[in-house]
Amino acid sequence: MGLFMILFTLIGGITLSAQSSINGTFSRKAGTIETTLLTFLTGTMFLTVFIVFFGKGNILALLEAPKWQLSAAFLGTMYLLLTVMAVPKIGVIATNIAGIAGQLVIGVIIDHFGWFNSLVIELDVKRVLALVFMIISLYFIYKGNKKSAEGNQHSLKWRTFLLERSSPFFYIHTENTLEYSL
Q1: Which of 42, 75, 171, 175 has its CA 20 to 30 A from that of 69?
Q2: pTM over 0.85
């Protein structure tokens, strides 16, 4: 069963990266908050159908939960909103690594103090090193993305320059697209 859970989590990570990329692109046209709303509305519809056919829990128990536990819904919404905002600016991999680094940092703190009735796992050198390596990887990914974006910008400006000289149309560069007008 443990192997299946690892596989399911791996598939979940793949879908999360694909979703981040698609939502980031979609948000350029529809808007960040609107894209986040669409994601949650779609998820609500899917989960409603799933609950109707496969649900075995008690949905009314949500009303009996301690109020602080309901904050998880707000935190999930904030995560998605911030991810949709970040992807178009820093790319999918930098966004995902930053998200994972944030999860690891707070996870280590939660484990260390046993917050939210979780298992207490002491902070040790191995965990600190893991966090340091994750932050180092984020640094290198971000720098690589930035360098690549600058190279693409230079390449796009050069192509625009050549097109301006060889065409009766005037080309305008706007956010990695070429528009033309007479």
Answers
A1: 42
A2: no
